[in-house]
Amino acid sequence: xxxxxxxxxxxxxxxxxxxxxxxxxxxxxxxxxxxxxxxxxxxxxxxxxxxxxxxxxxxxxxxxxxxxxxxxxxxxxxxxxxxxxxxxxxxxxxxxxxxxxxxxxxxxxxxxxxxxxxxxxxxxxxxxxxxxxxxxxxxxxxxxxxxxxxxxxxxxxxxxxxxxxxxxxxxxxxxxxxxxxxxxxxxxxxxxxxxxxxxxxxxxxxxxxxxxxxxxxxxxxxxxxxxxxxxxxxxxxxxxxxxxxxxxxxxxxxxxxxxxxxxxxxxxxxxxxxxxxxxxxxxxxxxxxxxxxxxxxxxxxxxxxxxxxxxxxxxxxxxxxxxxxxxxxxxxxxxxxxxxxxxxxxxxxxxxxxxxxxxxxxxxxxxxxxxxxxxxxxxxxxxxxxxxxxxxxxxxxxxxxxxxxxxxxxxxxxxxxxxxxxxxxxxxxxxxx
Length: 433
Description:
Blueprint: H1 40-52, H2 56-67, H3 77-100, H4 107-110, H5 114-117, H6 122-131, H7 135-155, H8 158-161, H9 163-177, E1 182-194, E2 200-203, E3 211-224, E4 227-240, E5 247-252, E6 255-260, H10 273-282, E7 294-300, H11 303-317, E8 323-328, E9 349-358, E10 365-376, H12 377-384, H13 392-408, H14 411-414, H15 417-420
Parallel strand pairs: 7-10
Antiparallel strand pairs: 1-2, 1-3, 3-4, 4-7, 5-6, 8-9, 9-10
Helix pairs in contact: 2-3, 3-7, 6-7, 9-11, 10-13
């Protein structure tokens, strides 16, 4: 996924701290020391385990609390265990797909132990977590329980369940307030490359060896705020975070092209993998708090065109004083960055806008957030140029290596040599439930 045109020497953590020094407060089951530190959460978990160990009815009640809010017919234990197994199997698929993104030499060191991979029973995993003599076995059982529960929480999130409806409503607002002003649509292919100084040079006449990007540009004309606007929107996409198409680079017909591919395609229906990864990286335990569950991206020629588009978007989908969490790295202001993983060369206008939506069940309105990103053409080409510091792939690799990996493959369990380039196996596992 990351091998083409990505200069690995450019991939560095943004800070000077230890990437393995992780705060597990939001996800305590991922803490390698969870079982060695006395806590009320550990005591509750242990008591629950002892209740369900030999009592099938107690086990059924605990599983029922995961799936049934109460008031409906109680499901039998076999059916509840089957539903739980579905999520545990999804956890296996997520973990396998994550390991696949690691360097090939590193993968054998972190493959899940067969006893954990083969177990799709909550009670069986709890038994490993509490009774295993091998601390790694205990940790991996705990991790699988965490991943399965997190995937269930994602499925039970209101913003996930209504995500497709939210996206359709947002696009309806765009159709009424922006795209109805369309006067022309045309295709455009841009060739681009990075010069020795790190700047992006691009042309509408691609040459041999250029990286290429295909645009279907939309020209809109309207009057807004008392003035005429004529605007070329080179690219637009709107996506529900459960369905993502990450960028890769491939040779097509003998030419280098930027291609979008589906990730985590083995997971059920649309993937929750992207949501789960963000929750783990950012210490999020409630998926409804993720602001970019619906994301919209635009590309325009320059900063003046960005201002025009922002004016039209605000009229179409915005609310008075409705923009929040705005980061504008295209502005002249210095020292602005998106997050700890982003490059200082990453240039974008990004902000959240809350969209009013009628509840499908009650008709009462509530708001859902949409993350809007607007790039200038040169700024966007930086993100798809694999050799550039601001490459989107480089950002995702930093998020993966420095945000996700230390949290699900902790040094206390697997050591660090396997990831840091040494040939030796990981240090001995430590800690357990």
